[in-house]
Amino acid sequence: MIHPSVDTALVEKYNRPVPRYTSYPTVPYWDEQLPHAQWMNLFRDRFQEEYGSGMSLYIHLPFCESLCTYCGCNKKITINHKAEPEYMAALEKEWQLYLQQMDRKPIIRELHLGGGTPTFFSPGNLKRLVTMILKDCIIHPEYAFSIEGHPNNTTYEHLKTLYELGFRRISYGVQDNDPEVQRIINRIQPFANVRAATENARSIGYESVNFDLIYGLPLQTRASIERTIGQVMELMPDRIAFYSYAHVPWTSRAQRLFNESHLPDPASKLDLYLTGQSLLLDKGYEDIGMDHFALPHDELSKARAESRLHRNFMGYTVQNTGMLLGLGVSAISDVWNGFAQNDKTLHNYYTAVRNGELAIRKGYHLTAQDKAFRKYILDISCHGQTQFQPEDRPLLDKYVFPRLAEPEKDGLCKVNWQGLKLTPLGHQFIRNVCSAFDLKMARQGKHATQAFSRAI
């Protein structure tokens, strides 16, 4: 089953390694050391500039009770729940370091708890954590609070506690329902648990439920993808993220635990994607872009129709705050003029905050040129079009227009001296079109793609 709007030959042609553009410049081009004083200056300046619109907070909770072998996230495997209070104390110290840089109470517009497995933490500890963070804040009238949950351990009490704190969105990592696929990726998750977690959230009053699904996993077949999505359609989640599995055992060592011969070949993986996409579109989901689908009633679909979409390290969002602060091990912050990422090891993160220091180990200070081309990429990924600025014409002529010639010839976009607009077909190739504006990749040539997964 292939949806009629999909050109298989074009998908094969543009299935190249390209970034997902949750940032620009992308993380591989960041500096290994960003001076703390420089970062704090960037943070304070942006806090003042964006104060009225509020800020986004991302809190990384890294603990998982078991290892999912496909996972490339930063996580800590443990069954020792005594780790919870120690980590919460470190988060509080880090938060206090940032509060000291603010001359007034921050306005929180968006809060997301990610991981790892945030529902590793007990309902009581999640309540203590969120209460600790928000007690020194003003909540924006249009706030949005969300959390990632594991269907196996997200209890009714978890959901009720978070709902009472203002959470209205929940995202469940479903990945695949096939028992053999679950076995090989070490994520045994009966569909009954997914159903119970979803129905509990809806009965309490959650307004949006998202499922994460992955294609390209070991032992996946077209039949297993069809069964998985068929079961998922029984619950009709409001949003679905349909991600490509990125096999990068050189950075995610757990991926070495299964045989690469179990992975679908490129043609089969492409078929998995086209099959899943077709099923979702036929069921009424709208393709938001870059792996995301949503039902027409969902706020994500409405924001796309009204050109209100924004994109940051949490993916697509309707909250364009202009400032994202990440707390916790490996968390990333974005203050538009700069990025910063915390240390990826718990030991170094704990050591830094206990010494009264930020745990930043990597970052980037954007130039005026970076910001201009970042805006082009954001405009295309969120709104499907962008307008060119005359002062950027020399760089557009040298790097961008030559790289847009082939996509334009293939009907993915329409380009003139004023701007670019995606065609309906081009909306399925957003990452590829955005990559034409990636000056970092353009200047490094073919070697620049080695750090990124393929578009499909």
Automatic annotation (TrEMBL):
Q: Which domain of life is it from?
A: Bacteria
Pathway participation: Porphyrin-containing compound metabolism; protoporphyrin-IX biosynthesis; protoporphyrinogen-IX from coproporphyrinogen-III (AdoMet route): step 1/1
Q: Which GO terms describe its biological process?
A: protoporphyrinogen IX biosynthetic process
E.C. number, please? 1.3.98.3
Cofactor binding comment, as recorded: Binds 1 [4Fe-4S] cluster. The cluster is coordinated with 3 cysteines and an exchangeable S-adenosyl-L-methionine.
- Residues the entry annotates as binding [4Fe-4S] cluster: 64, 68, 71
Q: What residues bind S-adenosyl-L-methionine 2, as annotated?
A: 70-72, 116-117, 175, 187, 212, 246
Name the SMART domains for this protein. Answer: Elp3
Q: Sorted alphabetically, which Gene3D superfamilies does this protein's record hold?
A: 1.10.10.920, Aldolase class I
Reaction(s) catalysed by this chain, per the record, are: coproporphyrinogen III + 2 S-adenosyl-L-methionine = protoporphyrinogen IX + 2 5'-deoxyadenosine + 2 L-methionine + 2 CO2
Give compartment(s): Cytoplasm
InterPro entries from the UniProt entry: Aldolase_TIM, Coprogen_oxidase_HemN, Coproporphyrinogen-III_oxidase, Elp3/MiaA/NifB-like_rSAM, rSAM, rSAM_sf
Per the record, its GO cellular-component terms are:
cytoplasm
Binding annotation for S-adenosyl-L-methionine 1: 58, 115, 148, 332
Cofactor(s) this protein cannot do without: [4Fe-4S] cluster
Keyword set for this entry? 4Fe-4S, Cytoplasm, Iron, Iron-sulfur, Metal-binding, Oxidoreductase, Porphyrin biosynthesis, S-adenosyl-L-methionine
Matching Pfam families: Radical_SAM
- According to the entry, every stretch annotated as the Radical SAM core domain falls at 49-286
What is an example of a GO molecular function annotated in this UniProt entry? metal ion binding
Q: Which family does it belong to?
A: Belongs to the anaerobic coproporphyrinogen-III oxidase family.
State whether it acts alone or in a complex, and with which partners, per the record.
Answer: Monomer.
Q: What is this protein called?
A: Coproporphyrinogen-III oxidase
Q: Which organism is it from?
A: Candidatus Pseudobacter hemicellulosilyticus
Its ancestry begins with:
Bacteria, Pseudomonadati, Bacteroidota, Chitinophagia, Chitinophagales
